[in-house]
Amino acid sequence: MPMEIIESELGIANKEVLSELGLRTAGALKRPTRSMAAQSVEFFVLEGDQPTLGDAWCEYRIRFEQSAKASGFPLRTATALAAAFGEMADNAVFHSESTIGILVGYQAIPGASLFCIADAGIGVLESLRSNPEYRNLNDHREAIRMALKPGISRYGRGHGGSGFAQVFKSLAKHWGTLRFRSGKGCVTMDGRDCNADVGVKSEAPFRPGFQVSVCCRTGESPHSDSLI
User: Fold this and answer.
1) Rounded CA gap, 214 and 189, in Å?
2) Which of 49, 110, 129, 144 has the greatest CB tally within 10 Å of its CB?
3) DSSP H or E segment with residue 103
4) Phi and psi of 32, rounded to 5°?
5) 74 vs 77: CA distance, rounded Å
6) pTM of the predicted structure, to 2 decimals
């Protein structure tokens, strides 16, 4: 019989999250002290107005990088994955307007490194519609597709960054699978062809905020869709 989720490795890691997003928040008074060593699975919470510059966050990213190396990625690739992780976390911090924090997490298994960023903020559609240029936008899937393009943001064309483009570039050679979810929309993309226009768009039950899931592999796998 499989163990209860709360007793599993994933459940134990989620218990340590001191946030409304965690499975259990009572009991612990502070986040457990960790070394810089690789972890197989770990979560972290960023507050919506907290810059991703604090010591605890930097240490967390180092552990993620070490975990990617332990999965079989060379140092240069592990560093690129950590940079992609940071770019996507930055995006959630600066755009989500979440009131309960942003949950980020990673898992390292032999041959693959996975990470996710999830917030319960305003979502991509509402964020873009806050700019008059996009006020006629009404499709969650189209909003996600647009947000993935360089130079497009709530601040208007030409004022957005190129963070996602850099993320795609760093994932392109590593059998990456990317999934973006917001509102009633979902866009799934193959990391080897990271073009928002050809990503698979689908409709899903409404979910607040914006969620990003990424899986990169050290080699091509026949089960490419089973890890995210």
Assistant:
1) 10
2) 144
3) strand 102-109
4) -60, 145
5) 5
6) 0.78
216 by DSSP, 3-state: which? Answer: strand
Q: Token digits for 108?
A: 């390292």
pLDDT digits (tens, 9 = 90+) for 213-227: 989 888 765 444 455
Question: Between residues 42 and 222, which one has the greater pLDDT?
Answer: 42
DSSP state of 222: T
What is the tens place of the pLDDT at every residue in 172-194? 667 788 889 999 999 888 766 66
Q: Which amino acid is it at 151?
A: G
The closest alpha carbon to 212, from 90, 53, 37, belongs to: 90
Q: What type of residue is 164?
A: F
- Residue 226: other Cβ atoms inside 10 A: 9
8 Å CB contact between 140 and 124: yes
Assigned token pair, 84: 């992609």
Which H or E run contains 202? strand 200-217
144: enclosing H helix or E strand? helix 140-147
Strand order from edge to edge, sheet including 41-46: 41-46, 102-109, 112-118, 200-217, 177-190
Q: Helix and strand tally (H, E) in the chain? A: 6, 5
Which residues neighbour 104 within 8 Å (Cβ) at sequence distance 6 or greater? Answer: 43, 44, 45, 46, 85, 89, 92, 115, 116, 117, 118
